[in-house]
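We modelled the chain as a single entity of 183 amino acids. Its sequence is:
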Amino acid sequence: MGTHGRTGVERFVVGSIAAQVVRHAPVPVLTTAADVEWDVETVLVPTDGSSYAEEAADHAFDLAARYDATVHAVSVVDQDAVGFDVRSTRLTEALREQAQAAVDRLVARAEERAVVASGTVVDGHAATEILETVETADAGLVVLGTHGRSGVRRLLLGSVTEVVVRGATVPVLSVPPTDRREE
């Protein structure tokens, strides 16, 4: 499905058809800008350790095996969510440890399926860092799980998936939760 790259007020008023499809589709949706070439040597898999990310990783492993590509996992420690006080250092360290554990699990699962994998943990805003990692990892495809948020929760929390779909310079495969696929 193609994306138009609308931003600002136009996107808010008009909405994004691709984002709406990704948000509500019961099956994985592949989105891409019109001028993107399909050249997948590295599949980027963002992970927060959730079941959504684990499900998406399974799709990434299958695609990596099919196209003889590697998998690169990335987990983002959101510094904005931590705050700035004495306790924040310990919290940041704990979040980094959880992020590293999520990356390590994903890499191990890929290797169990004979897929070459690597991973990194970065600090920052999730969508921004995922988009930057597309470039630094030279990824040709992003595969990420959607959390299935809607309504006020999506409006307040935002959607990492929607920002990545709109901003990616490579195709993005958005994988919905299993329960949405079973409806």
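As a brief sanity check on the tokenised model: The helical segments are 8-14, 17-24, 51-66, 86-112, 126-136, 151-157, 160-167, 178-181. Residues 104 and 119 are 7 Å apart (CA to CA).
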